[in-house]
Amino acid sequence: ETGIQVLLVLKTSYVLSQIFTSATVWFSGGAGPVECCFQICKTPIDGREIASFHVTDPLCPTSAAVLITKTAEHLCADPKEQWVKMIINFLEKKAP
């Protein structure tokens, strides 16, 4: 029985950690920022997968570029990183 309890605790901890680490974007109502990033993607992303981007609100605790993939996934990235700058420059040149 102890082994089952330990397994249940580990599984619950894993699920909760996945929920918290995947919640990179926060949506709120009211007068606060609409979208803030709490986890920044550090791994470079293929720019061809990114459809658009925007920067987070200045009221957010972390400045970030929100990269929106062609499948509508929102990924937060550091706008000071070279790979992020390259994606932003490409998208800005591509825009009409």
From TrEMBL:
GO biological process, one term: immune response
Pfam families reported in the protein's UniProt record: IL8 (PF00048)
Domain Chemokine interleukin-8-like: 33-91
Gene Ontology terms for molecular function: chemokine activity
Gene Ontology CC, one term: extracellular space
UniProt keywords, alphabetically: Cytokine
Listed InterPro entries: Chemokine_b/g/d, Chemokine_IL8-like_dom, Interleukin_8-like_sf
Record-given protein name: Chemokine interleukin-8-like domain-containing protein
Protein species of origin: Xiphophorus couchianus (Monterrey platyfish)
Origin organism lineage: Eukaryota, Metazoa, Chordata, Craniata, Vertebrata
